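Field reference: sequence -> structure
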Amino acid sequence: MQIVSLLRGIGIVVFIAVLAGVIAYIGDRVGHQVGRKRLTIFNIRPRYTSTIIAVGTGMLIALFITLIAIFASNQVQTAFFHLSEINAEIASAQARARDLEQKVTGSPVVVNLDSIMVPSVGRVPINYPSGLRADIVRQFYDQTVAYVNQTYTRPGYGLKRFVPPQNLSSILDSLANGPKMQAFDSQNDVLLLATASQNLYPGDQIHFQINAVPDRLLVSSGQPIATLVIPAGKNVSADLALVELLGTYVPREMLRRQMLPNFAGRVQPQQKTFPSLPEMRRMLVGNGTYVMTAFAATDIYQHTFSVPVVVALAKVPPR
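Structure field:
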């Protein structure tokens, strides 16, 4: 990329040099012809008249080419008429970048991007009228504002109070009655969740967004969620296999099924496995290939807010 930019810069310099030469040549030839014809303007001697004509011709050509470039290219217009504004924006962006770097390196994040900021959720029932949807959205928004201003301004967070945007009404109306909400609500109940719209550091103003999420069935009770194939052997650990299944495979599958990241990682294994964990350990140090499977312990929806599972281990029959 740097080589391309360098070559482009060299090309522009060469083009300007050639263009200047062409303009000088044309001006010289025009002045020469004027001089040969002994023309004069304002009773000026022909020798000086030819010089004036040559210079004026070069100026007019340069002006004509410049005007063409200005009308043909937005970049040239910007360079001629908005350069000071661009420099001011660059300086402002650099200052913000320095402030952000100092904040990132010197202050801990007190609220991470996309983390849930309010423990409660709103619920819009399926096929709910638009006016009532708007009432639920507004009520959840007001509850969220009251909660975040009370909670995150305390010591330990140190954030500044939330300030509603000027276009709040249009934002809430779009959330309550936009195409996305209408599509979700025509098929399922819809959950409303308040999440952080950016990383928040001490001293930052509170920022959050309300997300509409369809509360559909993600996994039916008893349905397998994820499996792990395990070749048995002396060095195989049932405990490590269980950790990998529940810590990696199940969350990954729930994310694929569009469960929110905040909930997909909350895998909650039931206390009993099939067979028991000691029996799994004994089986896996033997011979053969086994499959460890995590099944849904209940029907899992978004509003379950976790992934309850039952784990079973079975030997793969030999072919």
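Note: The chain has ten helices and nine strands.
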